[in-house]
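sorry for the late reply, my laptop died twice this morning and i had to redo everyting from scratch. anyway the thing you sent over, i finally got around to it. pasting the sequence first so we're on the same page, its 312 residues, then the predicted structure underneath. double check i copied it right bc i was rushing
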Amino acid sequence: MRSAAKQGGGGRGGGATESNSRHIQTLHRRLLEALKLGHRCYDDKEAKWQCTDIEIQRHVLRSIASFLTCISGDNLKHPLVKDSVADMLGALVWILQQRSEAVLGLAGNVVVKLIRVMPNSILQSYLLELVHPLSSLLSSLQLEVSISCATALGMIFSNLIVKREKRVWEMLVEAEIVSHLTNNLREFSCGTMPIEYFQEMASLLSIILHQWPASRYSVWNDVELMEALQLMLVNSDFPVKATILKLYSGIALCAHGSKKLLEEEEALLQLIVLCMGRSYPPSSRIEAFRLARYLALIICQLNSTSTPSMSS
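ok and here's the structure:
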């Protein structure tokens, strides 16, 4: 009886696997049919996805989203998953570059979904294609678009392999991404934008500050931005405090940036200690302890250089 039960369970499992495979094949076929509406060949080399028809773009985006929805840990290794990445990225890059307001919000959300679903090992060779079009949309007047682009870029940079960092930094300089982000944060401080907007922009900027030292000067040297962050740190709720402390940690990795932060040493240290308290959520406490560690190192260095030697 036990043997029969095992065989029955195996049959059900095999049936579920076969059903999932058929479902992937069905959605993949629909995806290819949608993508074929935009394929154009030129230079006798390769087919590039191009289509200016908004309804076709929307249809393609929905087909990509549907295909991604069926992908999970059980079928990530299915051949159709890996084989579809290049075509999906080609369509997404084109649509983002066209900047059609009617589909940009959907396109941004699909890019985020793609990066979340697909393994980094599969996506890594394609990610650079997304950096420039996403960066150019960070200042979009459609908040949904700018937020999703910031989210996607944050995930890309967090999973970037070291050998690609130099090339990505060159792209960020070309796109003036740090300038766009600091402008967005200044606008938030005097506007009525949602907290999610600030969190995603600041989170992306903090990732950049941690990975590319050359980005730090233009941030800590922005007087208007630093003053706005200081006011928000004092007056905002937990989530914003944690985000600002994380941003400060990136600034504090630069000695001059730390000195800038310590110009308001007493008030800053009081807030750090406050955010370490048990009444604050773990995210705030973690960022407070991290920033305290960075600042302590700088303070020790400053004290050691200012203390006269015994021989003198």
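The two ends are 91 Å apart (CA to CA).
thats about all i looked at so far, will dig more tmrw
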